Amino acid sequence: MEYLLNSTIIELVKRDITQSDLECIVNAANTSLLGGGGVDGAIHRAGGKEILDECIRIRNKQGNCPVGEAVITTAGKLKANFVIHTVGPVWNGGNNKENEKLSNCYKNTLNLALLNGIKSISFPNISTGIYKFPKDKAAEIAIKTVKGFVELNNSFNRIQFICFDDENYNIYQETLSAVL
Ligand code: AR6
Description:
Strand content: 15-25%
Organism: Paenibacillus baekrokdamisoli
Structural class: alpha/beta
Shape: globular
Helix content: 40-55%
CATH class: Alpha Beta
Protein name: Macro domain-containing protein
InterPro entries: Macro_dom (IPR002589), Macro_dom-like (IPR043472)
Distance between the termini: 12 Å
Number of helices: 5
Low-confidence stretches: none
Pfam families: Macro
CATH topology: Leucine Aminopeptidase, subunit E, domain 1
Bound molecules: ligand AR6
């Protein structure tokens, strides 16, 4: 499923993000940047030690990565050239700036990609696993934030939303056709 928005292809795909052949993949990390379960675990396992080594160097230099912020590393053994690690919010009822923080993940990731000359990028469904963000709300925030960014910046060729579970895939199908 593809949409064209301001000369950027917005694509919905169901797959394991470690198999992405785009230039950059996004990791749903935690503030420690030292790896974990879910998509974070999968990326570190498939990408190898080089990614963790760079995360450790970044952490030693600038400390924990705050929620909503992003850092960039090599993609090690993956097909992609870069991984952007961003930290999604833990869902805590919805009155703790969760929406704003999740939107910041997408904005700050795209800004960092732009600064690094990246033209194609794959996003997982940040915060919708272990961090328990409601999937429908998260999809709407992800799509609207990416849309807003692309309307202002013509720099990406392709932006992929990668869903791993059927529930997110179905929600994204509906939300993309409603929003784009
Ligand atoms: N490829 C694409 N998507 C995936 C993959 C994969 N290989 N594996 C899982 N997903 P989660 P979070 C989807 O839990 O909620 C880690 O421990 C999954 O179906 O990975 O942001 C970190 O270190 C879900 O829709 O991330 C943090 O501590 C989405 O990825 C914490 O989990 C996000 O699920 C972050 O939690």
